[in-house]
Design brief:
It contains 7 helices and 14 strands. By secondary structure, the protein is α/β, with parallel strands linked by helices. It has 2 domains: 199 residues, SGNH hydrolase (Rossmann fold); 83 residues, Immunoglobulins (Immunoglobulin-like, Sandwich), CATH 2.60.40. It has a 5-stranded parallel beta sheet with strand order 2-1-3-4-5. Helix 3 packs parallel to helix 4 and helix 4 packs parallel to helix 5. The chain starts with a helix and ends with a strand.
C-alpha cells in the first residue's frame, strides 16, 4: 500500500527541478533546500521564494518523484536523484545548512534506514546543520515515518525537526485534493515555517528594526544635528524619508539628520525607512518638535 501511495504522490505534479540563488552577499549564509514534489510548489510561487530567501543565499534543489534513498519514480522518462545521491554529487556545494523535505515517495518499512543514510551522507559532505520537515500525515504510514525523523534527530545533534505536520494541520485550504500537494498559500506557509526555523537558529538574520524613537528638540533658525539608529538585519543601512520633512531638515542616506529648520514652531510627524544590505526594510513614524 505504501508503494502505491508513493507513486500517486509522485505522479500528481510535472514540475521540474528548480535551482535558484541570488548573488552572494557578505554575511549571508548559504542554505540548500532538498525537496520532492510537495516542496516543489515553492519555486513556482514568487511570494514563497521571497519569504524563504530573506537574509540567506538560497539554493532550491527540488524535484518530483524524489526519494530519500533509492530510485525515484520516472517523470518524462527521467528518475530524479535521491537525497543520498544528490548529496554525494553536490558535496561541499551544499554549504553548511541543508533543509530536507522528502519522504512522500518513500516506503514506510525502509524510511528509518533511508533517513539515517541521508543524514550520514550530509555530515560526510560537511553539512553542519540539517532541518528535516515532518510529513503531513494525510495517510497513516506518514505517522510512523514522522517518528523515524524524530528518532533520527535524537541520535544526531546536527538535525532539527521542523514540524510541518502540526504547522499545517489546521489549514486544509493550503492543499490540493490529495491533502499533500500545495496550493499557493501552502507553498507560502511552508516557506514561512522553514524561514522561522532558520531565524531561530540564527542562520537567517532577524529583519532590521529602527531603534530611534525620539528626535531631539530643534530650534527654528539654528543648526540641527541628529542620527537615526537601526539594529538587526545586515548593515550597512540606507535611510530615506517616505514624505517631506519640515522645511530646512534633511535626512542623509547614512542616517544623519542635518539642516537648519525654517518651518514655523510646532510638532511635525513623518515616516523614515531603513533598508539593509539585502533589501529588507523597516519603517518608523517619528515626531520632530521645533521651538521658536
Amino acid at each position: 500500500m505504501k508503494g502505491v501511495i508513493g507513486v500517486l504522490v509522485a505522479l500528481t505534479t510535472t514540475a521540474t527541478i528548480a535551482a535558484s540563488s541570488p548573488a552572494k552577499t557578505t554575511g549571508v549564509q548559504h542554505v540548500t533546500l532538498i525537496g520532492d514534489s510537495v516542496a516543489d510548489a515553492i519555486p513556482g510561487d514568487d511570494a514563497a521564494v521571497a519569504t524563504l530567501r530573506q537574509g540567506i543565499d538560497l539554493d532550491l534543489e527540488v524535484a518530483p518523484c524524489r526519494r530519500v534513498e533509492g530510485d525515484g519514480c520516472p517523470i518524462g522518462g527521467v528518475r530524479p536523484p535521491s537525497v543520498v545521491q544528490l548529496v554525494q554529487s553536490m558535496g561541499s556545494k551544499l554549504g553548511d545548512n541543508v533543509v530536507v523535505s522528502v519522504g512522500y515517495n518513500d516506503f514506510e518499512d525502509q524510511y528509518a534506514g533511508n533517513v539515517e543514510d541521508a543524514i550520514n551522507a550530509l555530515i560526510a559532505a560537511g553539512v553542519k546543520r540539517i532541518w528535516w520537515l515532518t510529513l503531513r500525515a494525510a495517510h497513516h504510514p506518514y505517522l510512523s515515518m514522522n517518528d523515524d525523523i524524530v528518532q533520527a534527530a535524537a541520535r544526531h545533534p546536527q538535525v532539527t525537526v521542523v514540524d510541518w505536520n502540526v504547522y499545517s494541520r489546521s489549514h486544509p485550504d493550503w492543499f490540493q485534493g490529495d491533502g499533500l500537494h500545495l496550493l499557493a498559500p501552502g507553498a507560502e506557509g511552508m516557506a514561512t515555517l522553514i524561514h522561522k526555523a532558520l531565524l531561530a537558529a540564527g542562520v537567517a538574520p532577524a529583519p532590521p528594526r529602527i531603534v530611534t524613537t525620539v528626535l531631539p528638540l530643534a530650534h527654528r533658525g539654528k543648526p540641527y544635528r541628529a542620527r537615526l539608529v537601526a539594529a538587526a538585519g545586515i548593515g550597512p543601512y540606507r535611510w530615506s524619508l517616505l514624505e517631506r520633512a519640515p522645511v530646512g531638515i534633511h535626512l542623509l542616506q547614512s542616517g544623519k539628520v542635518t539642516g537648519t529648520p525654517r518651518a514655523k514652531a510646532g510638532r511635525y510627524v513623518f515616516n523614515v525607512r531603513a533598508r539593509d544590505a539585502i533589501g529588507t526594510m523597516a519603517t518608523r513614524r517619528l515626531t520632530l518638535r521645533i521651538l521658536a
